[in-house]
Amino acid sequence: MKLMKHFPLSQTIAKHKQSLLALPLLAALTLTGGCKDDSASATLPVNAANLTAASAEPVSFWVATDTHYLDNGLQDGGAAFEAYVSGGDGKMLPYSDELMEALVHDAEQKKPAFLILSGDLTNNGETSSHKKLVQKLVRIEQAGTSVYVIPGNHDLNNPWARSFEGDKQIVASHISAEDFDKLYADFGYNEAISRDKESLSYLVQAAPRLWLLMLDSVQYAKNEEYGFPQTDGRILPSTLAWIDKCAKLAAGSQASVITVMHHNLLNHTSMHVSGFRLNNSQEVLKQLRKDGLNLALSGHIHMQDIRRDPGAAAADAAAPVYDIATGAFAVNPHQYGAMSFDPVTRRVTYATTAVDVEGWAAASGSTDPNLLGFKAYAEDTFAASSYNKALQRLEESTFSAAERASMAEAMAKLNVYYFAGTASEHLSEIKAMPGFKLWEQTEGGFMSGYIRSMAEEQGGSNVSFEMVLGAAKP
Ligand code: FE
Ligand code: MN
């Protein structure tokens, strides 16, 4: 059988033993979860008979996104770099290398079966960032964790690739789609059981009964002509047809499929911001529903958010599709999704986990106080950057200096929770802040929309989640 070829028994046992030891909580959660929801498991066409004892065990895996890795060699910490970082969107670029090292360390310690990276692997597609990142991914695989990647809108043909020297930004070389294919051959493309002819999409058997449909949603062909990386994404019509074939293939092997893409399948904010959700999301949703694929993992929006297809209430209430947008790894609180899959019940769990920079720093003998106390440092840095941006936006307002400071303080706090995916749990705390009430008095503009979208946050956790994966339909 094909599956056995990809999962030699000894290897499967070893991997699972390690992951169960390292993640007793997650494993226990999966086990109790599997028994809890009788209605769901009763309707499953589960055929555990031809699963071996080892391959019937739950598998643990991680998803991280928007790592936006920047090669240390491309910046000297000078004025140009500092200005670039403080003018940016909150990415922890000065410690980009340390963050990735901490992720490698986490993987070496906890040994998930595989790690998914769903695009925006690099800051702006710099050749040397890609090459250095590949070296780290090699080490993750050497420790026993398979890595599967897809590109994001910043990774290919990016005219924004830069190095930073003193007070100057210097154009750096960037990679093409062909380069990506070669560079990341060992991180999905070589293992693919099927590849899309017209994109960097592929299908891979990641674990017994669990396949990954890795979709390339990026439009990079005109970046050089535009002079910037195109932000919005879509799935090509020919790729949709290929997805249908993939689902049939998976169905033949009784596999469930998780769909992975950089752009969001669903809206993750009520704000009218374009470029986050796929341009043809309705079409893609229709295809996924038809094929029995009910979970997508995405990134791109940089904040943590879990959504259920709102249209599902009417047409497909019995089989809603979910999109988990994992927060950017490069942005506070620097988290990834720790997941599990039970091949017998098809149950999937997800829980955000902050990368353990402090543990890695201590283990590697670092003396940098920012790294040794990274959790507080990263949150303070992110909050300060939100605070300063809010103050800038209020410069021409009629609010007093004290009022502006109070508003900026509320915005900083809100942003910390919002990006972590915990705003809904802190709504009453935020709404009680004097600065929040002042924001509510403002009309129009980005900030009032932002505040409103946050206030619309409703119940349902954005940081932990459980569901039953559909079986791919023939
Ligand atoms: Fe990004
Ligand atoms: Mn992106």
Describe the structure.
The chain has helices at 2-6, 9-22, 24-36, 38-42, 79-86, 96-110, 127-142, 177-183, 185-189, 223-226, 237-252, 281-291, 357-363, 369-372, 374-393, 401-420, 427-431, 434-441, 445-455; strands at 59-64, 114-118, 146-150, 162-165, 168-171, 194-195, 202-207, 210-215, 256-261, 295-298, 305-308, 322-325, 335-341, 347-354, 464-468. By secondary structure, the chain is of the alpha/beta class. It folds into 2 domains: 30-360 and 461-468, Metallo-dependent phosphatases (Purple Acid Phosphatase, chain A, domain 2), CATH 3.60.21.10; 373-454, Serum Albumin, Chain A, Domain 1 (Orthogonal Bundle), CATH 1.10.246.180. The strands form 3 sheets. The protein has a 7-stranded mixed sheet, covered by helices on one side. Strands 3-2-1-13-14-15 form a 6-stranded mixed sheet. Strands 4-5 form a two-stranded antiparallel ribbon. It is globular and about 70 Å long. Residues 1-46 have low confidence and may be disordered. Bound molecules: fe (iii) ion (FE) and manganese (II) ion. Residues 120, 152-154, 262, 300 line the site of manganese (II) ion.
